C-alpha cells in the first residue's frame, strides 16, 4: 500500500507490530511522536536505538501509548526510505472519554507526500557521491496521489466526501521528505484543534503550514454551496536561493449533494483556492504564533540544563584524495550540516542505545557541546572560516528528571532556512520563537510559561530561533534532528543520553530478544 496502512488505536493501548523486511534495503520503522516511555528499543531510528532490519528479517516493535491523543504517524527511519514508507497513526480517546470539541461526523487522514520519478535511494546516493544538493522532487501527493494539476494523474485524484451541515475532522500530516508545505481548502476555513497528538486551544485560519514530521488536526464545516472544492498543498520555501519543487498537489472535497453534470463525462470543475506565495514567512509566523495549549500547563520554571544549539548548513572543503566530481557543491565544496558545529556521524557496528546499555567503548563520546564552541553573529554575515563543522558521534548526557531548556538558533551559513527540529521520545513546550539572534537579556520577556503548545517538532523560524522546555523523564538515547532528510543526511542531528532514574519504573526496559544485530 502507498501510503501504508493507517493504524487506529485508543489512548492507553499497547501496540505489537511485526515488521518484516521484504525490500532490498536495510529498514527500520519509527513511530513518530510516540513517547516510548522506557521502550526506547522500539523507537526505530537506524543506528540510534537499533541496528536495521536486514532484507528478509523481522523485528517486532512493542510499545504503549500513554496520555497521547490525536494524530501521529509512522515512517521508515533508514536512509531516504521514508519517501515512500509511511502511514498515519491515529490515537482516539480512551473508551468512555471523548474529544474536547463536538464529535465530528467523519474523519479523514490527509498525508502530504513528496514523490520522485526515481528511486529515492539513488537520489540520495548521487548527492552523497557528488557532494552537491540532491535533486528536488517531481511532485507532491495527497494520500499517495499527485492530483489534477500534473500530467496523466487526474483519473486517480483523491476525493474526500462531505455533506452539507457536517463537521469533518481532517488530520493533516506532512510526510514529505524535504519540504515544509502550505495546505488549504477552497472557500472553507479551518478550526485548528490539535497538533502532534496534543490538543490546541481552537483558532481559525484559512491556511496551515506544516514542516515535515508535523501533524495538524483541523475541523471544517460543510457550510458552502454543494460543489467540488480543491484541497491543495504547495511548498513553503524559506531558503532564498535554494531550488525547490514548485508544483501543487490537489485532492477534491466533494459535497454529496453536488448537482450532476448536464452531459455525461463533464465533471464539474472544482473551485481552486489561492495559496500563499512560496516565501510567505509572514503567513507562517502569524500561524505558528497562534498555537496555545487549551488550558494552563505545568511548564518547568527551574532549569537544570540551559542549552544553546545552533542549527544550520555548512560547506566542507574538497578532501585531498577526492576528485572534482566528488566536490560539486558551491565553488568545489561538499555540502554538510551541523548542530553546535558538530556534524553528526551515525555509528555502523552498534546502535548508540546498545553501546550505552552494554557499555561498549569507542562507539560515541559524551562531549556534545552545551553551547556553540564559538560565539558569532549567527544570522548575520558569517565568516567563511566558520563554514566547516567537525564530524563526530557525540551525545549530551542528561540526568533523569532534569529540567531542560534549549534555545534552537538558526544560522545563515550558506543560507538561512526554516528548520523543523524533531526530538525523539519527548514532547516539549515551545515557549517562544523569534527572528535574528536569541538575546537572553531581552527575549526572555517573550516566554509563554502559562499555556505554550506541546509539540514533538518545532519549526525554527527562518533566520531565527525557538525556545523549548521539557523534563528528561524517559531514559534512553534520543535523537534530535532536522526533519528535512537532506539535512539529517548531511549531519544536522545530535542525541541525548538520558540516564536511568531510581528503580524499575524510571529505568530503560531490557532489550527485546529479537532486536536486530548489526
UniProtKB/TrEMBL annotation:
The GO terms this record gives for MF are: copper ion binding; hydroquinone:oxygen oxidoreductase activity
Q: What class of enzyme is it?
A: oxidoreductase
User: Domain named Plastocyanin-like: which ranges?
Assistant: 1-95, 107-256, 367-500
* Cofactor(s) this protein requires: Cu cation
* CC per GO annotation: apoplast
So which residues are the signal peptide here? none
Q: Which UniProt keywords apply?
A: Apoplast, Copper, Glycoprotein, Lignin degradation, Metal-binding, Oxidoreductase, Repeat, Secreted
- Record's subcellular location: Secreted, Extracellular space, Apoplast
Q: Taxonomically, which superkingdom?
A: Eukaryota
Task: Name the Pfam families for this protein.
Answer: Cu-oxidase, Cu-oxidase_2, Cu-oxidase_3
Q: Which reaction does it catalyse?
A: 4 hydroquinone + O2 = 4 benzosemiquinone + 2 H2O
* Annotated EC: 1.10.3.2
Give GO terms for biological process.
Answer: lignin catabolic process
Cofactor notes: Binds 4 Cu cations per monomer.
Write down the Gene3D superfamilies for this protein, in alphabetical order: Cupredoxins - blue copper proteins
Functional summary from the UniProt entry: Lignin degradation and detoxification of lignin-derived products.
Family as reported in the entry's similarity comment:
Belongs to the multicopper oxidase family.
Q: What protein name does the entry list? A: Laccase
Amino acid at each position: 500500500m502507498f501510503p501504508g496502512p493507517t493504524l487506529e488505536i485508543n489512548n492507553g493501548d499497547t501496540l505489537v507490530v511485526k515488521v518484516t523486511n521484504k525490500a532490498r534495503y536495510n529498514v527500520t520503522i519509527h513511530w513518530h511522536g510516540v513517547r516510548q516511555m522506557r521502550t526506547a528499543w522500539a523507537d526505530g531510528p537506524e543506528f540510534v536505538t537499533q541496528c536495521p532490519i536486514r532484507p528478509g528479517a523481522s523485528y517486532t516493535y512493542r510499545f504503549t501509548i500513554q496520555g497521547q491523543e490525536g494524530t501521529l504517524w509512522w515512517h521508515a527511519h533508514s536512509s531516504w526510505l521514508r519517501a515512500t514508507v509511511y502511514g498515519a497513526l491515529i490515537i482516539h480517546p480512551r473508551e468512555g472519554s471523548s474529544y474536547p470539541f463536538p464529535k465530528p461526523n467523519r474523519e479523514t487522514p490527509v498525508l502530504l507526500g513528496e514523490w520522485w520519478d526515481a528511486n529515492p535511494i539513488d537520489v540520495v546516493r548521487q548527492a552523497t557521491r557528488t557532494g552537491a544538493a540532491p535533486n528536488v522532487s517531481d511532485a507532491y501527493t495527497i494520500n499517495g496521489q499527485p492530483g489534477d494539476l500534473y500530467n496523466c494523474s487526474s483519473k486517480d485524484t483523491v476525493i474526500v466526501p462531505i455533506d452539507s451541515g457536517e463537521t469533518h475532522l481532517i488530520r493533516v500530516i506532512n510526510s514529505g521528505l524535504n519540504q515544509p508545505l502550505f495546505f488549504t481548502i477552497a472557500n472553507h476555513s479551518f478550526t485548528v484543534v490539535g497538533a502532534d497528538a496534543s490538543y490546541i486551544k481552537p483558532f481559525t485560519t484559512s491556511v496551515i503550514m506544516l514542516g515535515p514530521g508535523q501533524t495538524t488536526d483541523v475541523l471544517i464545516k460543510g457550510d458552502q454551496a454543494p460543489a467540488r472544492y480543491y484541497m491543495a498543498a504547495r511548498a513553503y520555501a524559506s531558503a532564498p536561493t535554494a531550488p525547490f519543487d514548485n508544483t501543487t498537489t490537489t485532492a477534491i472535497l466533494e459535497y454529496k449533494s453536488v448537482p450532476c453534470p448536464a452531459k455525461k463525462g463533464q465533471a464539474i470543475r472544482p473551485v481552486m483556492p489561492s495559496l500563499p506565495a512560496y516565501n510567505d514567512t509572514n503567513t507562517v509566523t502569524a500561524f505558528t504564533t497562534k498555537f496555545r495549549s487549551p488550558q494552563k500547563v505545568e511548564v518547568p520554571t527551574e532549569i537544570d540544563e540551559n542549552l544553546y544549539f545552533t542549527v544550520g548548513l555548512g560547506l566542507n572543503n574538497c578532501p585531498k584524495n577526492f576528485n572534482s566530481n566528488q566536490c560539486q557543491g558551491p565553488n568545489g565544496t561538499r555540502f554538510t550540516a551541523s548542530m553546535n558545529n558538530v556534524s553528526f556521524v551515525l555509528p555502523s557496528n552498534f546502535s548508540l542505545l546498545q553501546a550505552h546499555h552494554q557499555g561498549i567503548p569507542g562507539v560515541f563520546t559524551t562531549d556534545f557541546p552545551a553551547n556553540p564552541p564559538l560565539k558569532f553573529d549567527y544570522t548575520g554575515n558569517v565568516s567563511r572560516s566558520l563554514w566547516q563543522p567537525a564530524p563526530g558521534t557525540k551525545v549530551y548526557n542528561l540526568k533523569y528528571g532534569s529540567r531542560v531548556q534549549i534555545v534552537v538558533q538558526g544560522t545563515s551559513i550558506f543560507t538561512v532556512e526554516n528548520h523543523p527540529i524533531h526530538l525523539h521520545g519527548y514532547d516539549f513546550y515551545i515557549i517562544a520563537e523569534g527572528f535574528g539572534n536569541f538575546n537572553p537579556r531581552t527575549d526572555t520577556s517573550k516566554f509563554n510559561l502559562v499555556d505554550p503548545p506541546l509539540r514533538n517538532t518545532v519549526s525554527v523560524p527562518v533566520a531565527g530561533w525557538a525556545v523549548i522546555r521539557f523534563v528528561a523523564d524517559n531514559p534512553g538515547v534520543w535523537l534530535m534532528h532536522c526533519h528535512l532528510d537532506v539535512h539529517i543526511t548531511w549531519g544536522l542531528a545530535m542525541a541525548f543520553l538520558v540516564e536511568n532514574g531510581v528503580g524499575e519504573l524510571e529505568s530503560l526496559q531490557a532489550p527485546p530478544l529479537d532486536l536486530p544485530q548489526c
